[in-house]
Specification:
The protein is an alpha/beta fold and about 350 residues long. The chain has 2 domains: about 90 residues; about 260 residues, Phosphatidylinositol (PI) phosphodiesterase (TIM Barrel). The chain is about 45% helix and about 10% strand. It has an 8-stranded parallel β-barrel with strand order 1-2-4-5-6-7-8-9, surrounded by 4 helices. Strand 8, helix 13 and strand 9 form a beta-alpha-beta unit. The longest helix has 25 residues. It comes from Eurypyga helias (Sunbittern).
Length: about 350
């Protein structure tokens, strides 16, 4: 959708380049039938490409003044291209680069301390293999907080370089990354509140035989409401289990749903935001939900062209690994008015038709 106008130009250019060998083969053919067989399909494809813009759609082709505001940027596990994911440094980097919100993943330790960890094990993002080599496959929630807080959660980042476009880190950032530890949920929430940042998180239920297996939501709420002091309106509550109970004890949370549903059902559950993979949402859906005052957050959007599509489609916010890059985008890429698009389309078709005609005439 975002590059449709330029794909048309590219296809026409290729057809113009092919016109010379097609014309050459047609001239060398002895029989009229052979010439028709060679030239006919070529001209049919060319005509089809001339007319294809009539059915082409891109949300970034719009009248001046109809583009909505730039989507807010929510740091996916912080700023994982600049710092180890889900660490204090990662969220500080998101804040430093002007992110509007913070996204994370919450697990509960064996002794009931909610902490930030995406994977089910500690193998990828900590030094568990060096400290407890026999426990690398154990679920992260089965460790006590005293054990978890002693692990290093940053050296892997400098060693593995999880993103190809990370660039080089300063010596100070490298030293800071090497000294990161697993981050408690309560500290994460205090940081977000102090900087007036929205928070959204996936809450993972502990495994079987875990002491908080059946009270995981209650324990998380206890930390949010009683220990962190974060203002409720900053919390985008995503977990669907016990949603009615959560609303009763924390009416200030912004109720968020992780899947599409009829507008009537969402309003009945007091849903104010949808959190969806960008592949699941169209501009029509975004518009439909927006009319009911339900905003849309799309994840994970890293590339400027994809962010441009989300912007043109009317997304309210995106979750991204690249807050530091997308923050600098002042308008969508490939944005143009219908008049500019029509001029580009007509000029491309006329120029290519003239060139093809000259080549066949020669």
């Amino acid at each position: 959708q975002i590059t449709a106008p330029y794909l048309h130009i590219g296809a026409i250019t290729i057809m113009v380049l092919l016109s010379w060998p097609v014309a050459l083969h047609a001239i060398r053919a002895d029989k009229k039938v052979v010439q028709v067989v060679i030239v006919g399909p070529y001209l049919a494809i060319l005509l089809f490409l001339f007319l294809i813009p009539l059915g082409m759609y891109s949300p970034c082709i719009r009248e001046v003044g109809t583009l909505g505001p730039k989507p807010a940027l929510i740091g996916h596990r912080g700023a994982p291209m600049l710092a180890p994911e889900n660490t204090e440094m990662s969220f500080q980097k998101t804040i430093e680069h002007g992110g509007d919100g913070l996204e994370t993943d919450v697990t509960i330790s064996y002794d009931g301390v909610p902490f930030l960890m995406h994977d089910s094990t500690l193998r990828r993002t900590t030094n568990i293999k060096e400290v407890y080599p026999n426990d690398t496959a154990q679920n992260a929630a089965l460790f006590s907080w005293d054990t978890l807080k002693e692990l290093n959660a940053g050296t892997w980042f400098l060693k593995d370089k999880p993103f190809s476009c990370m660039g080089s880190l300063s010596r100070a950032d490298q030293n800071q990354a090497m000294n990161q530890s697993i981050y408690k949920l309560s500290n994460f929430l205090r940081l977000a509140d102090s900087q007036n940042k929205l928070v959204i998180f996936d809450l993972y239920r502990p495994p079987e035989k875990h002491p908080y297996r059946n009270s995981w939501i209650n324990r998380t709420l206890e930390v949010i409401l009683n220990e962190s002091g974060i203002r409720p309106h900053l919390v985008l509550w995503l977990e669907n289990d016990m949603r009615s109970f959560v609303q009763s004890v924390a009416p200030g949370f912004q109720q968020t749903m992780g899947s599409k549903a009829p507008v009537e059902d969402l309003l009945m559950d007091n849903i104010v935001k949808l959190n969806l993979a960008y592949t699941e949402m169209s501009s029509e859906d975004i518009r439909k939900y927006a009319e009911a005052n339900i905003t849309t957050n799309l994840y994970v959007v890293n590339e400027p062209w994809l962010f441009s599509l989300a912007w043109c489609s009317g997304a309210h916010s995106v979750t991204t690994n690249a807050v530091h890059m997308l923050k600098n985008l002042n308008q969508p890429l490939f944005l143009m008015t219908p008049q500019q698009y029509n001029i580009m389309w007509i000029l491309t078709d006329l120029t290519s038709a003239l060139l093809v005609s000259l080549i066949f005439a020669l």
